[in-house]
Amino acid sequence: MAGAAEKLLGRGGPWRLVEEPTRGIDRGCVNDTFDLHDCTVGRSRTGHGFCRGGDSGGCQDRGVQLKPNYPVRTSRLVLRPLAAADVEELLADRGRPEVCRYLPFTPMTREVLQARLAGDMSRREIKQEGQALTLGVRAKDTARLLGDVVLFFHSREHRGGEIGYVFHPDAGGRGYASEACSALLALAFDELGLHRVTARLDSRNDASARLAARLGMRQEAHLVRNEMFKGEWSDEVVFAMLAEEWPNSPAHRTHQASQGS
Ligand SMILES: CC(C)(COP(=O)(O)OP(=O)(O)OC[C@H]1O[C@@H](n2cnc3c(N)ncnc32)[C@H](O)[C@@H]1OP(=O)(O)O)[C@@H](O)C(=O)NCCC(=O)NCCS
Fold it and tell me: Of 58, 131, 151, 244, which residue is the least packed, with the fewest Cβ within 10 Å?
């Protein structure tokens, strides 16, 4: 859910969609798939949709790429890949029980974060389906780390992806997550060329549902007691936005406003 160019998007420059022939290690979908328990900052247990084999094309990733030109900038924020030096600031939010309440992991320790920062969390680009790009979100004025957003590229065949987001409680209530996720959706639709982007959340996570709705995502499903989540059956809510809905969405307007700032 969950969320991240010099003057962000829309001038055709900072990010690019590259189609190139499959080659070498990029051919196999088993490489670089994200860890379904740790990597998801949203509620996703997915990972479905890729590497199905057969004729689905799922393992024949031809190299769609998302290579943002960092840093990604919005009106008030700067988004860039996380690095080892971010560990203490990340610990301040991902280490808090109340932040992790509806996230698919327990509060993270310094050691867990260090390992993640040495691996998937510092990825700078998406090269194939099954990968996720996590971007740290900092305030332009103070340079403080406010949170992070993530974009999962689930399926090349279905052009499907998902967003996730985690912010420090002190950064709440000011629209930072909305602004960062708007930039992330611009990456997803305008640069990676996705057809549909989802956000999956616990039905009790009102703040997350309000955020998804504020972005202009449509609630498509309420799955009743469909998963055992931290020891109890819980409901999952699925929000989605299609590529054709993106240009008229509130998130797109937020993104456009960032371009003018
Ligand atoms: C989910 C989460 C990111 C939402 O944070 P948030 O602060 O509510 O979202 P935003 O930063 O977009 O701020 C929006 C709020 O600020 C207000 N706001 C103030 N200025 C604003 C502005 N310029 N633009 C938009 N909203 C603004 C909005 O009215 C809104 O308040 P409301 O929800 O009470 O109506 C946050 O609660 C979180 O990180 N939770 C823990 C991790 C988690 O559960 N992640 C989601 C997993 S599915």
Answer: 244
